[in-house]
Amino acid sequence: SELYNMFSLFIKLFYLTRSMKVSLDVRVPESPAVALFGSDAVLNCSFSGVSEFNLSDLSVFWQLSDTKRAVHSFWQSRDQLSDQEERFSNRTSLFQDQLVSGNASLLLRRVRVADEGSYSCFVRVQTYGSAAMLMQVAAPFSKLLVTWGPESALKPGDAVALSCVAYGGYPEAEVLWQDGAGHNLTHNVTVSQVANEEGLFSSVLTVILEPSSTYSCRLSQPLLGEEAQASVTITQGLVFPPLALWLTVALAVCLLALLVALAAVCRRKIRESCEEMRRQPPALSREANKEVT
Ligand SMILES: *[C@@H]1O[C@H](CO)[C@@H](O)[C@H](O)[C@H]1NC(C)=O
Ligand SMILES: *[C@@H]1O[C@H](CO)[C@@H](O)[C@H](O)[C@H]1NC(C)=O
Ligand SMILES: *[C@@H]1O[C@H](CO)[C@@H](O)[C@H](O)[C@H]1NC(C)=O
Ligand SMILES: *[C@@H]1O[C@H](CO)[C@@H](O)[C@H](O)[C@H]1NC(C)=O
Ligand SMILES: *[C@@H]1O[C@H](CO)[C@@H](O)[C@H](O)[C@H]1NC(C)=O
Ligand SMILES: *[C@@H]1O[C@H](CO)[C@@H](O)[C@H](O)[C@H]1NC(C)=O
């Protein structure tokens, strides 16, 4: 009797594991799918483990994994979009001709930053199965732009604020500032990355430096393998124009003062000689004659 009980347990276990094997094998990519902002993305989902079936017996549900909100639903041989999350409307579709061959992939058009997250693919036909996958959104940053200020009124020894700006990227980038010798200046940097209404970042970096060297700003975004670098050399040229201007002004003032002084001296000399001429005209004529001879 005990032997019989054990035998029946074995039989039950055998059927249990067999029925588990029959459940649908649903597969999605293991690593996150990277979708380019604004472009169309395919969220791959394939299923196997079913024999021939009619399309009318198939149900496919794409959901947001955390909220369970509907992204795209399909049953009774057609799309069922009445409960679809608003922000996905007109942007999703299945490859309907591929469904019978086990391809339940979702096409998501015009990808937005808000689309980033985990998606679950449920498939039911005879039995059911599901799998979840991550989608990451990426957008390349604009070309780096390095600016500095204040450009005017800059004297040697003044601090310079260098800004390194890149627009419209996602996700946030890593930024590294270096001086000409390759030293890490990250502790001198204030980084602010602000997102616009579309969720794309602009990276503004400000570094306070002595105006004497070459500084480079490097931005990297591992998701897109994006690397960009820009450098600026703050030479004496930047420092000198204001100084030269002051020198010119000072020189001009000196010259003017000199001329005024000279004029004053000359006028006095002329006046003196005129008075002398009035006092003793003959002497002057005699001297003039003397000069001619
Ligand atoms: C989707 O699956 C197909 C076929 O397995 C593969 O060629 C393609 O690279 C996959 N696409 C993505 C975004 O994973
Ligand atoms: C499903 O079909 C679409 C369209 O042909 C294709 O782009 C995608 O890679 C397929 N996915 C799989 C997992 O086969
Ligand atoms: C598919 O549906 C047709 C008619 O509805 C039926 O005759 C056929 O047996 C079904 N095939 C399978 C594999 O269920
Ligand atoms: C979807 O497309 C239909 C028809 O083209 C349009 O009437 C509707 O406003 C669109 N919905 C959204 C949210 O864009
Ligand atoms: C630069 O310095 C900062 C902190 O001072 C540090 O977090 C960062 O890892 C350094 N980067 C490199 C490439 O050395
Ligand atoms: C970085 O900042 C510190 C203090 O704020 C300053 O002493 C140092 O000179 C700065 N380094 C450079 C290269 O400007």
UniProtKB/TrEMBL annotation:
<dbReference type="GO" id="GO:0009897">
    <property type="term" value="C:external side of plasma membrane"/>
</dbReference>
<dbReference type="InterPro" id="IPR013106">
    <property type="entry name" value="Ig_V-set"/>
</dbReference>
<dbReference type="InterPro" id="IPR036179">
    <property type="entry name" value="Ig-like_dom_sf"/>
</dbReference>
<keyword id="KW-0812">Transmembrane</keyword>
<dbReference type="InterPro" id="IPR053896">
    <property type="entry name" value="BTN3A2-like_Ig-C"/>
</dbReference>
<dbReference type="Pfam" id="PF07686">
    <property type="entry name" value="V-set"/>
</dbReference>
<dbReference type="InterPro" id="IPR007110">
    <property type="entry name" value="Ig-like_dom"/>
</dbReference>
<feature type="domain" description="Ig-like">
    <location>
        <begin position="38"/>
        <end position="138"/>
    </location>
</feature>
<protein>
    <submittedName>
        <fullName>CD276 molecule</fullName>
    </submittedName>
</protein>
<dbReference type="GO" id="GO:0001817">
    <property type="term" value="P:regulation of cytokine production"/>
</dbReference>
<keyword id="KW-0472">Membrane</keyword>
<dbReference type="InterPro" id="IPR050504">
    <property type="entry name" value="IgSF_BTN/MOG"/>
</dbReference>
<feature type="domain" description="Ig-like">
    <location>
        <begin position="140"/>
        <end position="233"/>
    </location>
</feature>
<dbReference type="InterPro" id="IPR013783">
    <property type="entry name" value="Ig-like_fold"/>
</dbReference>
<keyword id="KW-0393">Immunoglobulin domain</keyword>
<dbReference type="Pfam" id="PF22705">
    <property type="entry name" value="C2-set_3"/>
</dbReference>
<feature type="transmembrane region" description="Helical">
    <location>
        <begin position="243"/>
        <end position="265"/>
    </location>
</feature>
<keyword id="KW-1133">Transmembrane helix</keyword>
<dbReference type="InterPro" id="IPR003599">
    <property type="entry name" value="Ig_sub"/>
</dbReference>
<dbReference type="GO" id="GO:0005102">
    <property type="term" value="F:signaling receptor binding"/>
</dbReference>
<dbReference type="GO" id="GO:0050852">
    <property type="term" value="P:T cell receptor signaling pathway"/>
</dbReference>
